[in-house]
């Protein structure tokens, strides 16, 4: 028994040391918001923060705050003081950024000076990522009362967006008309899984069956519809019956694509290796497709060690936007970290590029965009409607797990 406990303690210490490799980057990112965005009276964080840390508005966005909670909750293992900050932010979110209707609770986009935003429509991105922080906090600090709120929010989310006829989710919901025809997309299938439901399945072990049917259904639709083998890019926009919209006019494509969504889809498929509720045959198919997506994406981009551009025409493979976006590179690093060691060189090089170019160690935080010459674009806000600390912290999480596997 003593030997076993000593071994466990040694492994916990080793895991913590591996995560602390990123302490400089974590502290630089979180301290930027702690020092510049935190309101000690409301005990929460303002969302819109410029390059030097100036608060540009008093808006507090649901997604940015939820993503802040995610990062604070995850890092609390190494920085215990962060769990209290996360709890305070959650209290603000639950008290100020949630409303109710006949279906149930939903997230409000933002609040400013006590005035809540008001709209007749809500979108799946803001609703799904509103749950992101709550679930990460619950995984670190289980609480029956919080879990009850999560269950209520999830139930209302599913009822609002779920297509009970053709499967999957609509992307938009109107309080006046219901589900909005024509709003189905790659994101409406993928984001509910990647932002919260897969993590909820992991931490809410007693209620896993509640989530498994939806996870299976969305994965199958993504497997069947989301990847275009011919172009090597994801399909982004769909009809209500999950047919890909006509994207044959190269001068006026139905949708454009981002490498970040390619990598995000690949990561999702590769994550399924640990999901016990899936048939083994499906897991094998998902692993193969995940690896295929990474391979084809890198081929489309030619090279990734010096970063990659933000947007492409999927028909011509021509670059539409030469800027380089922080979140897309974080998604790429996650995908490579899950690729079973197939891209070790690219992973090391891309991570070095990420921290050397996107993080700002003069004023703190990280840049949203780089130019095609890797110069930071300082006019873009470092904190915004969806930008706080989530993507980088999530990337560090997967990189840490990858390093642990390699060490073992």
Automatic annotation (TrEMBL):
Asked if the Swiss-Prot or TrEMBL record annotates the protein with the keyword Cell membrane, the reply is no
Output one GO BP term: carbohydrate metabolic process
Q: Which UniProt keywords apply?
A: Isomerase
The record's annotation in Gene3D superfamilies points to: 1.50.10.10
Q: Which domain of life is it from?
A: Bacteria
One short Pfam name that applies is GlcNAc_2-epim
Q: Does the keyword Lipoprotein apply?
A: no
Q: What GO MF annotations does this protein's record show?
A: isomerase activity
Protein family according to the UniProt entry: Belongs to the N-acylglucosamine 2-epimerase family.
PANTHER family hit by this protein: N-ACYLGLUCOSAMINE-2-EPIMERASE
User: Under which name does UniProt file this protein?
Assistant: Mannose or cellobiose epimerase, N-acyl-D-glucosamine 2-epimerase family
């Amino acid at each position: 028994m003593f030997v076993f406990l000593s071994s466990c303690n040694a492994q916990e210490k080793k895991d913590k040391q591996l995560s602390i490799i990123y302490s400089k980057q974590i502290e630089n990112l979180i301290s930027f918001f702690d020092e510049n965005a935190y309101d000690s009276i409301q005990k929460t964080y303002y969302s819109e923060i410029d390059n030097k840390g100036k608060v540009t508005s008093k808006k507090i966005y649901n997604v940015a705050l939820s993503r802040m909670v995610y990062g604070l909750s995850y890092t609390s293992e190494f920085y215990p003081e962060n769990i209290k900050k996360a709890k305070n932010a959650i209290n603000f979110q639950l008290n100020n950024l949630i409303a109710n209707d006949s279906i149930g609770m939903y997230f409000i986009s933002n609040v400013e000076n006590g005035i809540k935003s008001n709209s007749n429509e809500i979108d799946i991105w803001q609703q799904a990522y509103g749950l992101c922080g709550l679930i990460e906090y619950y995984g670190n600090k289980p609480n029956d009362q919080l879990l009850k709120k999560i269950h209520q929010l999830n139930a209302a989310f599913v009822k609002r967006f779920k297509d009970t006829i053709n499967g999957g989710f609509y992307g938009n919901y109107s309080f006046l008309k219901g589900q909005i025809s024509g709003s189905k997309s790659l994101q409406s299938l993928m984001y509910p899984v990647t932002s919260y439901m897969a993590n909820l399945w992991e931490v809410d072990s007693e209620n896993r069956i509640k989530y498994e049917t939806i996870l299976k259904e969305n994965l199958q639709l993504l497997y069947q519809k989301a990847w275009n083998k011919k172009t090597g890019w994801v399909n982004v926009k769909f009809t209500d019956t999950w047919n890909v919209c006509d994207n044959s006019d190269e001068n006026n494509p139905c949708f454009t694509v981002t490498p970040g969504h390619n990598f995000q889809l690949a990561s999702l498929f590769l994550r399924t290796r640990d999901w016990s509720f899936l048939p083994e045959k499906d897991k094998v198919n998902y692993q193969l497709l995940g690896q295929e997506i990474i391979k084809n994406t890198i081929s489309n981009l030619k090279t990734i060690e010096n970063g990659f551009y933000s947007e492409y025409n999927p028909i011509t493979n021509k670059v539409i936007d030469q800027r380089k976006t922080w979140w897309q590179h974080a998604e790429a690093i996650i995908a490579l970290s899950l690729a079973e060691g197939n891209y070790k060189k690219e992973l090391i090089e891309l991570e070095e590029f990420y921290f050397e170019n996107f993080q700002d160690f003069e004023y703190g935080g990280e840049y949203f965009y780089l130019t095609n010459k890797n110069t930071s674009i300082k006019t873009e806000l470092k904190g915004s409607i969806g930008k706080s600390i989530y993507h980088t912290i999530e990337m560090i999480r997967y990189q840490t797990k990858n390093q642990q596997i390699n060490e073992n």
